[in-house]
Amino acid sequence: MKTFPIVTICILLFYACSSNKPTKPAVETDYCQYVDLFIGTADNGHTFPGAAVPFGFIQVSPETGNDSWRYCSGYNYADESIIGFAQNHLNGTGCSDLGDILMLPFSGDINNGVYRSKFLKSEETASPGYYAVRLSDFDINVELSATQRTAYHRYTYHKDAPAYLLLDMQSGVVWDTKSIESHVLAAEMEMPDNQIITGHQQVHNWVTRHYYYEIRFDKPYTVKEELSAKPGNKAKRLILAFDIKPGETLQAKVAMSSVSVDGAKEAMKAESPGWDFNVVRESAHHEWNDLLSGVQVTGSNAQKRIFYTLLYHLYIQPNN
């Protein structure tokens, strides 16, 4: 019997398979319709419903809590209030970390020092690359989308009251309440003009990390107040004020880098140069749909919902 080296056999198999490889058809089905981002957000599933693109560095998502093992992803479906929207989250892990740069839009003055809002499940929606909710206490509609390294926020203020935004750089997804006050090891912030904020932070919870950021607003801000620091705090908690009439929107973009502020600026310039939220949302949707279409299954809609949701969660990691 004539024999062939194993390398030769592998090469022959490669060409046999590649020569018969079908051309990938154009994506006509909306596979994103089968993805349910709320699967895994209850109990200890530790997933999040916020916006991301496949393998993205950014996962911008609401946080209903961040100070216990219950909140490894920052969100639990059983909760009825939101403390803000942070730019990155872990998906399906049993460890706490990330939750960097917490932002909460609100209207009017908060006199009790508690920055959070109730919301209704009927006014919360999510699909690959998009998340939306109405903050009931402030009557503000929040929409989120993302690119690989930038988060995109759009807030519509409806109340006839001053428009504010809490920018909480001390917050993070941590083990316990005590860790919130001490997990930031170093923090630097600059405000080069009244629409941009940049900076760098070193934080520690599961691991020690450095991250750099650039935040841009489409309207000028003024710093209304810097909240009092608690023992152990290194980072700022700012109340920003905006001149916004009822029904108007405020847009914010957050770019992040693990290398430098210049890296965050380059990400912003390359991925989110404009202010068209719908373009970013549609781009994220198409990116997800193209990837999910790589696997086509038959079955009931309920079975497809389970399958494509699992596939979606698979494609969040590893992160860019």
Describe it for me?
Helices cover 19% and strands 32% of the residues. With 320 residues, it is of the alpha+beta class. The protein is globular. The protein starts with 5 loop residues before the first helix and ends in a 6-residue tail after the last helix.
| Overall geometric form | globular
What fraction, in percent, of the residue positions are helical? 10-25%
Radius of gyration: 22 Å
Largest beta sheet: what is the strand line-up? Answer: 7-8-9-10-17-14-13-12
Strand residue percentage = 25-35%
Which residues sit in consecutive blocks of at least 5 with pLDDT less than 50?
A: 1-22
Backbone structural class: alpha+beta
How many strands appear in the DSSP assignment?
Answer: 17
Largest β-sheet summary: 8 strands, antiparallel
Mean pLDDT: 92
Q: Give the topology string: H per helix, E per strand.
A: HEEEEEEEEEEEHEEEEEEHHH
Number of helices: 5
Instruction: Report how far the terminal alpha carbons are from each other.
Output: 50 Å
Task: Write a brief structural summary.
This protein is of the alpha+beta class and 320 residues long. 19% of the residues lie in helices and 32% in strands.
Fill in the keyword field for this structure.
single chain; alpha+beta; 320 residues; 8-stranded antiparallel beta sheet
Write the layout of secondary structure elements.
Layout lengths: L5 H14 L31 E2 L6 E5 L17 E2 L1 E3 L15 E6 L9 E2 L5 E4 L2 E6 L4 E7 L3 E8 L5 E6 L8 H6 L1 E10 L2 E9 L3 E10 L3 E6 L10 E6 L6 E9 L3 H11 L5 H16 L8 H14 L6
Antiparallel strand pairs: 1-2, 2-4, 3-6, 5-11, 7-8, 8-9, 9-10, 10-17, 11-16, 12-13, 13-14, 14-17, 15-16
